[in-house]
């Protein structure tokens, strides 16, 4: 028998499952999460406050979710959030009450700052804790979220076979000295750990936000490549990241931008990313 539940999971299906189990059993849920250099903490289903579904009635598309395996996390941040999570559990268990029942505590490790956001009240139409709940028992949460309940690295399949190449294929392109753009869409902090020396780094987030400085930089690189090519061919752009997930998203974005924000290009994803490169092509390449 448990009185308080602490959620330390790193995937969306598990968060919905734990939330629903707590609501159905009438237990408070102390939830903490961390990603890169940021952390969040709140207490759901506590003293009439909202549950997780109140804030997120519909799960996000699987391809938009980044977990620690994909996005990385500075090791000390989960430690800080875990200590704060334990503190809230102890406060509730000892009868002192939690200060996070309707508050979201945000931690920014980069600036060393905490701030608090007031959450909206319990949602009357919530599917599990609302006035007329439709969820009265645990369901198939992987089917509900469209993703696996695992903290391990996901393998997205957003592109068709002809939109992707293997690391062996890309090695052949390098060996032939074919003019092209190699676009690394990882965050700068990862690029500083390791990168292929001839790559251009523009983070996926910059492409999503269409930051003019980065788009101009990409356009300049494409123009340089086209000058090396005979005729009026489209410049080939190969996109790489750590595991081959973000690079697929970037290919989709660049295909939409081709001929508009940038010159028309042929864009392909390098399947498996830099970790496949390290495993198959260059065993000395750093892995992280």
From TrEMBL:
<dbReference type="InterPro" id="IPR000594">
    <property type="entry name" value="ThiF_NAD_FAD-bd"/>
</dbReference>
<keyword id="KW-0808">Transferase</keyword>
<dbReference type="GO" id="GO:0006777">
    <property type="term" value="P:Mo-molybdopterin cofactor biosynthetic process"/>
</dbReference>
<dbReference type="InterPro" id="IPR001763">
    <property type="entry name" value="Rhodanese-like_dom"/>
</dbReference>
<keyword id="KW-0067">ATP-binding</keyword>
<keyword id="KW-0175">Coiled coil</keyword>
<keyword id="KW-0511">Multifunctional enzyme</keyword>
<dbReference type="GO" id="GO:0002143">
    <property type="term" value="P:tRNA wobble position uridine thiolation"/>
</dbReference>
<dbReference type="GO" id="GO:0005829">
    <property type="term" value="C:cytosol"/>
</dbReference>
<keyword id="KW-0479">Metal-binding</keyword>
<feature type="coiled-coil region">
    <location>
        <begin position="208"/>
        <end position="235"/>
    </location>
</feature>
<dbReference type="GO" id="GO:0004792">
    <property type="term" value="F:thiosulfate-cyanide sulfurtransferase activity"/>
</dbReference>
<dbReference type="InterPro" id="IPR035985">
    <property type="entry name" value="Ubiquitin-activating_enz"/>
</dbReference>
<feature type="domain" description="Rhodanese">
    <location>
        <begin position="176"/>
        <end position="286"/>
    </location>
</feature>
<dbReference type="GO" id="GO:0046872">
    <property type="term" value="F:metal ion binding"/>
</dbReference>
<dbReference type="GO" id="GO:0032447">
    <property type="term" value="P:protein urmylation"/>
</dbReference>
<keyword id="KW-0819">tRNA processing</keyword>
<dbReference type="InterPro" id="IPR045886">
    <property type="entry name" value="ThiF/MoeB/HesA"/>
</dbReference>
<dbReference type="Pfam" id="PF00581">
    <property type="entry name" value="Rhodanese"/>
</dbReference>
<keyword id="KW-0963">Cytoplasm</keyword>
<dbReference type="GO" id="GO:0042292">
    <property type="term" value="F:URM1 activating enzyme activity"/>
</dbReference>
<protein>
    <recommendedName>
        <fullName>Rhodanese domain-containing protein</fullName>
    </recommendedName>
</protein>
<keyword id="KW-0501">Molybdenum cofactor biosynthesis</keyword>
<keyword id="KW-0862">Zinc</keyword>
<dbReference type="GO" id="GO:0016779">
    <property type="term" value="F:nucleotidyltransferase activity"/>
</dbReference>
<dbReference type="InterPro" id="IPR036873">
    <property type="entry name" value="Rhodanese-like_dom_sf"/>
</dbReference>
<dbReference type="Pfam" id="PF00899">
    <property type="entry name" value="ThiF"/>
</dbReference>
<keyword id="KW-0547">Nucleotide-binding</keyword>
<dbReference type="GO" id="GO:0005524">
    <property type="term" value="F:ATP binding"/>
</dbReference>
């Amino acid at each position: 028998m448990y009185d308080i539940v602490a959620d330390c999971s790193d995937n969306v299906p598990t968060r919905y499952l734990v939330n629903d189990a707590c609501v159905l059993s009438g237990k408070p849920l102390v939830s903490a999460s961390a990603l890169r250099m940021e952390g969040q903490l709140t207490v759901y289903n506590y003293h009439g406050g909202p549950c997780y579904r109140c804030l997120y009635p519909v799960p996000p598309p699987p391809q938009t979710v980044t977990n620690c395996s994909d996005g990385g996390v500075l090791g000390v941040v989960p430690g800080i959030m875990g200590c704060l999570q334990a503190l809230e559990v102890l406060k509730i268990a000892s009868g002192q009450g939690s200060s996070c029942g309707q508050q979201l505590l945000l931690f920014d490790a980069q600036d060393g700052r905490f701030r608090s956001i007031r959450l909206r009240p319990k949602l009357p139409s919530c599917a599990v804790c609302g006035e007329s709940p439709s969820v009265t028992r645990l369901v198939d949460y992987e089917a509900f979220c469209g993703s696996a309940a695992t903290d391990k690295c996901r393998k997205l399949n957003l592109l068709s076979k002809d939109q992707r190449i293997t690391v062996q294929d890309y090695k052949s392109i390098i060996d032939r000295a074919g003019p092209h753009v190699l676009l690394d869409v990882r965050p700068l902090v990862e690029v500083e750990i390791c990168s292929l020396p001839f790559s251009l780094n523009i983070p996926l987030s910059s492409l999503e936000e269409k930051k003019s400085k980065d788009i101009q930089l990409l356009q300049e690189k494409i123009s340089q490549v086209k000058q090396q090519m005979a005729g009026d061919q489209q410049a080939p752009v190969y996109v790489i990241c750590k595991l081959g997930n973000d690079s697929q998203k970037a290919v989709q974005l660049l295909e939409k931008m081709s001929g508009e924000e940038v010159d028309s290009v042929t864009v392909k994803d390098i399947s498996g990313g830099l970790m496949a490169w390290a495993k198959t092509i260059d065993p000395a390449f750093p892995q992280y």
